[in-house]
Amino acid sequence: MSVAKLLVRVAEVEKINDLITRFRFVARDGGLLPAFSGGAHVVVEMEDHGTRRMNPYSLSGDPEDRTGYEITVRRDDAGRGGSIYMHRHVSPGMEMVISHPVNLFPLDGRAKKHLFLAGGIGITPFKAMIHQLSHIGAKWELHYATRNPALCAYGDQLKGPVHFYYDDLKSFIPLRDLLARQPLGTHVYCCGPKGMLSWVRATAAELGLPEHSVHFEEFTAPQPGAPFDVELTLTGKTIHVPSHQSLLEAMEANGVDAPYLCRGGACGQCECQVVKAEGQILHRDHWLTDEEKASNSKIMPCVSRFEGRSLAIER
Amino acid sequence: MLDLKPDFGGFFKDETFVGDFTFANSPSAVRRFPFPFDRDQYMYSVNIEPHVPTRPGSVLEHAFDIDEHYVSEMRDRARVLARDPLRCQSLPHMELAGWDLVELIMESLSRDYPQWFTLERSGNDWHWVNKPLGIDQRFTFLDPSTLPYGPMEYITRQMQGDFTLQDERDGNLWVDAGMVTTQADWSLDFDIGMNFFEWHAPVPLAHEKGIFDRALKFLLKLQHGAPVRRFNWTMTVNPLLDTAPETYPEWGPSKTTLTQANLGAKQHLRVELQSLFRLPRSNAIAFSIRAYLGSFQDLVTVPKWGRRLHRVVRDLHPDLAAYKGFLRNRDAMVEWLSKYDDGAPTSPGIWPED
Amino acid sequence: MSFPPSIKSRPVYGVLSPRPGQAHLIIADGEGAGAVADLFASGPGIAERAHVLYTPGPNGTDDWAVIAGLGAAQAQRAASVPTLLFRLARVLLDAKAGTQCYLAGSEGLIGQAERDLMAQGVPHQDIQKEHRGSTVRRVQCVHCKGVTENVRTDPFQCSHCGLHLFVRDHYSRRLAAFQGVCIDAEEPGNIPPPVEKFA
Fold first, then answer.
1. A126 to chain B, minimum CA–CA distance in Å?
2. Any idea where the domains of chain A sit in the sequence?
3. Residue B3: which pLDDT band, with cuts at 50, 70 and 90?
4. Cis omega before residue A242 (within 30°)?
């Protein structure tokens, strides 16, 4: 299935703070964009000086505002360049291509209460979710931790049951007490750095919160790594994966199409069977089970890499 | 209440799907019947394709097909619902998906059939006109108190075919809402709340073949703006749209009334054009199950269909004939259809003219 | 005991095992008391944070003495399933998200408790269920919608509308019932003799 695309123009670029910039896209034909669901992302296509980058970003605006989409991008100086491209080269008036919204971090509508735990840039999906819940009058509460008040994006815009915490001021989310006092039927959603996700996962399990009522935004931005070669057995090509490109992007650059929804190791669409791996697969996804990872029988080309003598996959 | 003031005009037929069964397809409706078999045998497959408009005049010309039976089918739906309101249910968390469906259907119909339907919007103030049913409604989008029914019920009382709304959770699809009055013998009231595998649990053979695993995997990646479709089929004696388990004791005896003399008129092939749409606000999936009835005597007027229907019915796996509820009449159907099969080869594909 | 392989909507049961939790809500009937005793034996920390609701089984088994001897922080014996479910509703009013739920005993009790827990927002996948004792079924007549409790034979006569129904393995968590469908709809009066299938 090909990914449905939207042709958009950049309408606004607003620097929120030293690290974070907000972008607003409108439809090139001046029409309305589809409504979307809180937690959805779009994949933004970038033509970065000869390298094609496709990064997923959560939509952070109001899902009912069909006049435009907003994403909020944190600059990652150690990353592969997608966020740097967005910050340095994207300016109002530019024409871009984005995917239709896809949601891999949806609200559970059955919740008696939605409890949001945000760390840093992890605020973005919750901003859209709060808009959506406000339209339908559902109960929610946000706990939002950042390094310091200057990096607290949208802090001034978030109204309602919102609690802020700042690492530099030694104020932290009182997670144990917070989770322990939630009523039955509460759904917990967490989006933030890896350490925060593990902390929430462990604390929720220890308190006995039902596994299916605790949700995590598990996107991983592809990380750079050592270059490697891979043989694609179905297409009969051997391709090179440079250090700042993912295996999925390298396949696409070589004209080999692979299905995807998230490009962040969460949706499972791009999964490939490993035919031969003499070396180490660096699994960085949230899709494969631990057993699958250990057996090196599958790889998620959107985020995972390889180090070793030779790799062959079915594609 | 939604007061039907039907205007049959020159196009829509005034007919019944119960009692005296005056339903009939016009010759042009027979020609555009969605005959579901693209070859001379039938077995389950994940026969899903993109739901893109194709073949002007066919049932695939538009996102939703409105045909000559529209007004009478809507009157039949109102009759069924008056008798048993449990045929339309929506679990509380599905209201937003209901609004998504209102938007999808109103946008599609007003675009594809402007002579019958109009939609005017100013922000959340919407004005909907459905001329064939005599409906003129102003309402506020996302405010259920401005409609006479919940959003899903409101719009599906104006749409041919059944609808279910699937919530996506935990890597599965949950049938958490539906309007089901033209079904092939399944109960929404019983099945609502089930996941994809549970809902399809009674279907024989397909689980073992991995059909539902593959279908679910496919549907979970269904994207907004890229709907898909497939055909399904069964057999129905008399043009009864509402073959519900609830009323089985009423229509079950009709299965024992077939003779070689009346079979061509009474026995109907029932085809479901199923289309699936990802909904934007709710992330739910709308499942449109549009049933078409075609009598055997009408279908065999297309020689290709007569030959093929004979071969499919004759060679069908008995478990499937039992599940589809016509094992009892299969031999009689084969005998009747054999007169229309001269053994000549048939061309591939479903269309009569190919 | 375990049930033979069936269709995908037919419930399957496991063995209760202790999980971490702020509170342990345990609901059982009849022989389910044995499963609760085994749970307490394998999870020494459970008793002090346990609330047990118990009622005799559909076959009359009353092992309240077993429950009473477990040292649970709270335990009540209800006279019947409906009475137990009223007590459950009160418990759920102020229960916290970190409540572990365990159900044991007959399918009818397990199903109805699961239905009420789900209605308060507990995901059914996270409710532990262990079948013990009677295998009688709770069956909904798909025609009149009436539920007949403790069905032992297939077919059986609907206790509300009187139709003769065959018992499917198709099961609704929302209704906490199996489905019963008229067996002689196509040929009225052609009713096979009932077979004792559930005890």
1. 15
2. 5-103, 113-216, 228-313
3. low
4. no
pLDDT tens, residue by residue, C129-184: 999 999 999 999 999 999 999 999 999 999 999 999 999 999 999 999 999 999 99
Chain B contact for A109 (CB, 8 A cutoff): yes
Helix (H) or strand (E) holding A157: none
CATH number for domain A113-216, candidates 3.40.47.40, 3.40.50.80, 3.40.50.1390, 3.40.190.10:
3.40.50.80
Residue C113: Cβ-neighbour burial (10 angstroms; 0-12, 13-18, 19+):
buried
B1, pLDDT greater than 70: no
C122 CB within 8 Å of a chain A CB: yes
With vertex at residue C29, the alpha carbon angle to CA C26 and CA C30, rounded to the nearest 5 degrees, is 140
Q: Inter-chain contact B95–A136, Cβ cutoff 8 Å?
A: yes
What is d(CA B58, CA B245) in angstroms, rounded to the nearest whole number?
Answer: 31
What's the whole-number mean pLDDT along residues B272-299? 98
Task: Count how many pairs of residues, chain A against chain C, have C-beta atoms within 8 Å.
Answer: 66
- With helix as H, strand as E and coil as C, how does A40-108 read? EEEEEEEEECCEEEEEEEEECCCCCCCCCEEEEEECCCCCCCHHHHHHHHCCCCCEEEEECCEECCCCC
C125–A207 C-beta distance less than 8 A: no
Q: Do the Cβ atoms of A113 and A182 come closer than 8 Å?
A: yes
Q: What's the fold here for domain A5-103?
A: Elongation Factor Tu (Ef-tu); domain 3 (2.40.30)
- Are A273 and A300 in contact by the 8 Å Cβ rule? The answer is no
d(CA C46, CA B171): 32
Q: Return the CA Rg of chain B.
A: 20
Give partners of B (≥3 CB pairs < 8 A). Answer: A, C
pLDDT tens, residue by residue, B13-72: 999 999 999 999 999 999 999 999 999 999 877 678 899 999 999 999 999 999 999 999
Task: State how far the Cα of A114 lies from the Cα of A141, in Å rounded to an integer.
Answer: 6
Domains of chain C (ranges plus CATH)?
A: 23-131 (3.40.50.80), 137-196 (no CATH)
* Cβ–Cβ below 8 Å for C98 and A208: yes
CA distance C110 to B203: 26
Report yes or no: C140 at the B interface, CB cutoff 8 Å. Answer: yes
B354 contacts B347 by C-beta, under 8 angstroms? yes
Domain covering A228-313, topology: Ubiquitin-like (UB roll) (3.10.20)
- Asked whether the predicted pLDDT for residue A164 surpasses 90, the reply is yes
User: How far apart (Å, rounded) are the C-alpha atoms in residues A2 and A8?
Assistant: 18
First to last CA, chain B: 47
Which chains border C (3 or more CB–CB pairs < 8 Å)?
A: A, B
Does the ipTM surpass 0.85? yes
Give the phi and the psi of residue A314 in degrees, each rounded to 5.
Answer: -80, 105
Which position has the token pair 């968390």?
Answer: B93
Q: Do A213 and C100 touch (CB under 8 A)?
A: no
Q: CB–CB of A183 and C95 under 8 A?
A: yes
More confident residue, C98 or B216: C98
Which residue numbers of B are catalytic? Answer: 230
A7 CB near a chain B CB, below 8 Å? no
